Amino acid sequence: MMASSSRIACFQCEESSSNFDHFKNGWRLRSGEFAQLCHRCSSVYEEGRFCETFHSNDDGWRDCESCGKLVHCGCVVSFNAYLLLDFGGVICMECSRINFKLARHRCLALESQLLFGSHQDMIRQNMIELPNWPRVTEAELQKISRPSDSVVTPLFEILLSASDADHNLSRLILPKRCAEAFFPDISEPRGLPIMIRDTEGKDWEVNYRYWINSGCKMYIVEGLRELMISKRWQAGDTVTFFKVEPGGKLVIGLRKASGYQPPNENSS
């Protein structure tokens, strides 16, 4: 919005200045030009908080069908922040990207199983519940040490609780469906020792067993203390299990919680 031939005004707060460097482009207007925003308003816009900050009392807010986040639909500012769903409702772009990645990894997993697995393997993969479905990025896959001609399939993931990251317990409780789908069959509670490889290629011997709780099997992996310490497991981190084919090798990876700062190895 032009205040005069020599001054320009912020589209939102109408602060004006003759210094064009004081403004940044915002969203595209119907005229084809961009809304000019002062540094304060443009900062809010770039952080994705513009409608929450300036339009909180306006009409047109709807819930994202996936995460429940409020989206200001029909507003030109948030036009690129959501998608309309075919069956009605809206989904925010963040959830849309996550769903796309999940679908892509599901397709990759099914393709790898077609190459190296059986029809039963594909059925098992589709039994995994959404909280344990592996949300693995391409960068994470590339970091896994394995032969160049092998295929890595993400199996499932677990968000670590405080007890899962307890070095004194040194064990990890596995989701029942995941354990029965991807770990060896065990007929006795004492279980058996198995080898799990970390993403750097080091093998770790652990014990895989189960106990009965209210008539239901609870599967656990024990003897993880050294691995936990080596990888600095903490509550809020995510453990992901992979399978490398050919060979069916189990691989364990760790994704640190958001905001994690690695310790300074040189500090005293």
Outline the secondary-structure elements.
Layout: E1 8-9, E2 16-17, E3 23-28, E4 34-38, H1 39-46, H2 50-54, E5 61-63, E6 70-72, E7 82-84, E8 90-92, H3 93-116, H4 119-125, H5 138-142, E9 151-159, E10 171-174, H6 176-182, E11 192-198, E12 203-213, E13 216-222, H7 225-231, E14 238-245, E15 249-255
Helix pairs in contact: 3-4
Can you characterise this structure?
- By secondary structure, this protein is of the alpha+beta class.
- It is elongated and about 80 Å long.
- The chain has helices spanning 39-46, 50-54, 93-116, 119-125, 138-142, 176-182, 225-231, and strands spanning 8-9, 16-17, 23-28, 34-38, 61-63, 70-72, 82-84, 90-92, 151-159, 171-174, 192-198, 203-213, 216-222, 238-245, 249-255.
- The protein starts with 7 loop residues before the first strand and ends in a 13-residue tail after the last strand.
- It contains seven helices and 15 strands.
- Helix 3 runs antiparallel to helix 4.
- The longest helix has 24 residues, at 93-116.
- Strand 3 and strand 4 (34-38) form a beta hairpin.
- A seven-stranded mixed sheet has the order 9-14-15-11-12-13-10.
